[in-house]
Amino acid sequence: MYAVILGKNPKLSEAEFHAFTNRFGIKVKIIEASRNWIVFESSKKIEHLFHKLGGSLKLVKIVGEGEESIQELTYSKLFTVSIYGKEDWKLWRKLGSQIKKTFKSEGSAKFFKPAKVYAMPSELILKGFPETKDFVFIYGEKLWVGETIKITDPFELKKLDVERPVQRAIFSIPPRLARIMVNLTEVRQGNFLDPFCGIGTIVQEFILQGLNAYGSDSDPKAIRGAKENLKWLKKEFRVKKTAHLEVCDARKLKRCFRIKFDAIVTEPWLGKPLKYNPTRGEAIQMANQLDRFYYQVFDSFRDVLKRNGRVVFVFPAYKLKDGRIYRKERRWVEKLGFEVLAKYTDFEERHKVVRDIHVLRFKG
Ligand SMILES: C[S@@+](CC[C@H](N)C(=O)[O-])C[C@H]1O[C@@H](n2cnc3c(N)ncnc32)[C@H](O)[C@@H]1O
Question: What is the CATH number of domain 156-362?
Answer without folding.
Answer: 3.40.50.150
